[in-house]
Design brief:
The structure is a homodimer. Chain A is an alpha/beta fold. Chain A folds into 2 domains: about 230 residues, Rossmann fold (3-Layer(aba) Sandwich), CATH 3.40.50; about 60 residues, no CATH class. In chain A, helix 3 crosses helix 5. The longest helix of chain A has 20 residues. Chains A and B meet through helix 8, strand 3, strand 4, helix 10 and helix 11 of A and helix 8, strand 3, strand 4, helix 10 and helix 11 of B. The structure holds calcium ion (2 copies). The site of one calcium ion has 8 residues of chain A, from loops.
């Protein structure tokens, strides 16, 4: 609409971005697909943009935030589980033995998720996450996790929504975990959050209709699961997608592989001083194949150190 | 917002409804939850309303529209499958032998869905549905199915949206089948359609990223599946739900069982002359347990014959 275009022309929609190729690519894309009469014009209902969460919208080092939540839950539940003192992977969690925990691998992670994420209603789980988020702090920055979202990406979300885009989170993280903060942190409502999930069952308990979270994987929204999750939840192919790791490779392929003006963006963590620097060899957020694909598929690679004036929001 | 309230006060939001208990219940609910200062006030982001599709938003007799589509697809594909002439349930479809087809039951239905709904991309499938919808006609009314939506329900959808509700379809029908017409027929975008689905797989074909529909059930969004589908896709508990059969029982229980001002509505098909009359003994859209529950749970039962001035839209 005219007033939005006029408003955007007067003010920089991405003030935390340095001028450079990445910022120019984002602004040029949004301008091209929203200007009536443009050969690249896309009608508003088809303006779908998807955003990975961990490492794209907020911090993911030294461990995923959701994993930090799970570890704290294990410690909180330990008094009710005296057997955990001698049982892996719980023993490792309680002793802070990260090497043993890492060696427990995916099987260990599934056991921890089952013990900490299941056996309750979705409302109870979301309540727990909200309580935790309000108090837990990042070990290095000593700030709440909600303060460790990326200010430049908040500006991209707002800019795209003001330009008629519907913005979705599409993440390997737990769908209900993210729903606990997505509206507050990103302005993204629960139905626009796509993520991994465990099985939830409906039953009548004490005469009351109840949903109950079971310790069983339902869907893994990562890698090739991302286009599947997008199709299941959104039902439209995105025209823009933002990610930061190999888990986003297929989402960016799916988004940019349909012909027409498309935008694929990778956030490259290059700033060890203000945040972290990692890519091809990182255990968390490995960016290897997708970085190679970015060159051939002409995706935009954001160099955090060079492209972002600020990393985190300045809170009053 | 003020201008919407003012506009609604001046014009009847439900002109195709006769004055009566059903219309009054809907208007009273919407008024109570949207009026600031009301003890029942619900903030806009929590105003979620879910609508079953078949028999609630459009016709479902004498057979589900999606089943009519599948039967037409079998006939269309038959020349490529000469073996179907001697193979049930396809033989029955080709011979119009509905008794044998009915006897093939759920197993037969799954075979027909596998043969007609899988083996293609979602885009191809949606294209097929759109083409079919544009030409197929209802056997009794000789009108396109898109003309056999319920005008009074279109008014409810528009009224609730104008009152700050987000409206979702939650149906046992195929999610992608409904997405082919939900925006055009109901003003409901693809990401606000929840339904049953088959497994979809991501793969690279001839160097192109592709989603492919497999002949395997992924999720059944019916009965106890409806609260699960709502939780997975919407992530909020509805405050209003509309259905017409026992397949909606758990959705209405889930919606109205949380305390606070809630609205559960059942459309009761009572008009054999203008549409159909059926309930406890119908194979399609059986309304039995949910009709009993309506009395104890104080759900609103719409008597189509008495409550609706018109059934279908008058098209120019
Ligand atoms: Ca990530
Ligand atoms: Ca129905």
């Amino acid at each position: 609409s005219v007033w939005i275009s006029a408003a955007l022309a007067q003010t920089d929609p991405l003030p935390s971005w340095n001028d450079g190729a990445a910022k120019q690519a984002i602004v040029a894309f949004v301008t091209d697909v929203t200007r009536e009469g443009s050969p690249d014009f896309v009608p508003a209902p088809d303006r779908v943009a998807t955003f990975d969460n961990d490492g794209t919208l907020w911090i993911e080092q030294p461990i995923y935030v959701q994993f930090a939540f799970a570890l704290d839950r294990v410690k909180e539940l330990a008094p009710q589980h005296p057997e955990w003192k001698d049982k892996q992977p719980f023993k490792a969690v309680l002793e802070g033995d990260m090497a043993t925990l890492a060696a427990a691998g995916e099987h260990g992670a599934v056991e921890i998720v089952a013990a900490t994420h299941a056996g309750m209603t979705p409302e109870q789980f979301i309540g727990m996450v909200k309580t935790w988020i309000a108090s837990a702090k990042h070990p290095r920055f000593d700030r709440h996790y909600e303060d460790l979202v990326y200010q430049p990406m908040l500006e991209v979300l707002a800019y795209m929504r003001a330009s008629g885009f519907k913005t979705f989170i599409v993440s390997g993280g737990g769908i209900e975990f993210m729903r606990a903060f997505a509206q507050k942190s990103y302005g993204i409502p629960p139905d626009q959050v796509v993520g991994s999930s465990i099985v939830t069952k409906f039953e009548t308990r004490d005469g009351k209709p109840t949903l109950f979270r079971l310790p069983q994987v339902n869907f893994v929204d990562d890698g090739p699961g991302k286009p599947v999750g997008i199709n299941q939840h959104i039902g439209l192919r995105p025209i823009a997608a933002f990610g930061n790791s190999d888990g986003d490779l297929q989402m960016l392929q799916w988004t940019t592989g349909s012909g027409g003006r498309r935008l694929g963006v990778l956030v490259h963590h290059t700033d060890a001083e203000r945040e972290y620097a990692y890519d091809r060899n990182s255990k968390v957020g490995r960016l290897d194949k997708a970085l190679d694909a970015a060159a051939t598929d002409r995706w935009t690679v954001v160099d955090m150190k060079r492209d972002w004036k600020t990393i985190f929001p300045v809170r009053p």
